[in-house]
Amino acid sequence: MLETEKPLPDNVTDAIVVLCTAPDEACAQQLASLALSEKLAACVTLLPGASSMYYWEGKLEQEYEVQMILKSERSHQEALLSFLKQHHPYQTPELLVLPVHAGDKDYLSWLNASLR
């Protein structure tokens, strides 16, 4: 390590957050349960009552959906996205991956252990 380089803090991580919407709570719960049982996500937060507005095939749409927040790691990213695309009822589901730059080291340790 160069003298000007500093060691990375304990809370730096490879964790990711994946955003995905589902048409209803039953679908969101099913997707969450399957992702958890396959150890593709350590935790899934379901936020019912989200309102999404977007253009689809030239028409303005508004849907009430469940926002899913899936916590995982980069090493599981491709498998998780592939899983969600395969099992999701939407033709083009929302699949956005956000990097987690840092977090509580105890939570990140738990997240990592939960995916093994």
TrEMBL record:
<comment type="similarity">
    <text>Belongs to the CutA family.</text>
</comment>
<keyword id="KW-0963">Cytoplasm</keyword>
<dbReference type="Pfam" id="PF03091">
    <property type="entry name" value="CutA1"/>
</dbReference>
<dbReference type="InterPro" id="IPR015867">
    <property type="entry name" value="N-reg_PII/ATP_PRibTrfase_C"/>
</dbReference>
<feature type="binding site">
    <location>
        <position position="20"/>
    </location>
    <ligand>
        <name>Cu cation</name>
    </ligand>
</feature>
<comment type="subunit">
    <text>Homotrimer.</text>
</comment>
<comment type="function">
    <text>Involved in resistance toward heavy metals.</text>
</comment>
<dbReference type="InterPro" id="IPR011322">
    <property type="entry name" value="N-reg_PII-like_a/b"/>
</dbReference>
<dbReference type="InterPro" id="IPR004323">
    <property type="entry name" value="Ion_tolerance_CutA"/>
</dbReference>
<dbReference type="GO" id="GO:0005737">
    <property type="term" value="C:cytoplasm"/>
</dbReference>
<dbReference type="GO" id="GO:0005507">
    <property type="term" value="F:copper ion binding"/>
</dbReference>
<dbReference type="GO" id="GO:0010038">
    <property type="term" value="P:response to metal ion"/>
</dbReference>
<dbReference type="InterPro" id="IPR023700">
    <property type="entry name" value="CutA_Enterobact"/>
</dbReference>
<protein>
    <recommendedName>
        <fullName>Divalent-cation tolerance protein CutA</fullName>
    </recommendedName>
</protein>
<feature type="binding site">
    <location>
        <position position="87"/>
    </location>
    <ligand>
        <name>Cu cation</name>
    </ligand>
</feature>
<keyword id="KW-0186">Copper</keyword>
<feature type="binding site">
    <location>
        <position position="88"/>
    </location>
    <ligand>
        <name>Cu cation</name>
    </ligand>
</feature>
<keyword id="KW-0479">Metal-binding</keyword>
